Hints:
By secondary structure, this protein is of the alpha/beta class. The chain contains ten helices and eight strands.
Amino acid sequence: MSIQSNLQNIKSTLPVHVTLVAVSKTKPVPDLMEAYNAGQRIFGENKIQEMADKWEQLPKDIEWHMIGHVQTNKVKYMAPFVSLIHGVDSLKLLEEINKQALKNNRIIDCLLQIYIAEEESKFGLDEEELAVLLATPTFKELKNIQIVGLMGMATFTNNQNQIQKEFKHLKSIFDNHKNLKTENCNLQSLSMGMSGDYQLAIACGSTMVRIGSSIFGGR
């Protein structure tokens, strides 16, 4: 199967309101160009340096999403061009993104990462930490970021009931906070679901899915 036909197959299963992020980490530029030529414009990378290298080489109408864990000292390398940062899990990181966005005269969109999995390795805020963050005066002063939604990753398991429970939990957190609209916070996107579980995620309310191996093949 070609990248183009993989993309077309996946897109044919996605509802209109769901955004597809093609996870292109570790994939070479020609693979991304094949997806680009098939109409894909949103790509997700998990390493800032690799994303910056690809940004330099590829067409400028691509939206780059940073989907990996972000180290504060690397934010400056993507601040000129990144469209959406998925895994934001601290006020400290938001302050750095705000600082670098200001330097580039931009407002950078972010998703707050919520911890929903039953695994120690996953990053994220719990519901209480989310509420505290959104109510913090320092947060409200950040003018160069925009919180546009939440994201979360389910436990890596074959237990569909557990995954569904975690997705529904994230959807309920999203629903609890989506009416909170401030100058720098307006929750519209709910990013959950990857190659293995995106259909379940969509059924639970996801509006953005991150799909890599089903488009580009295995790593």
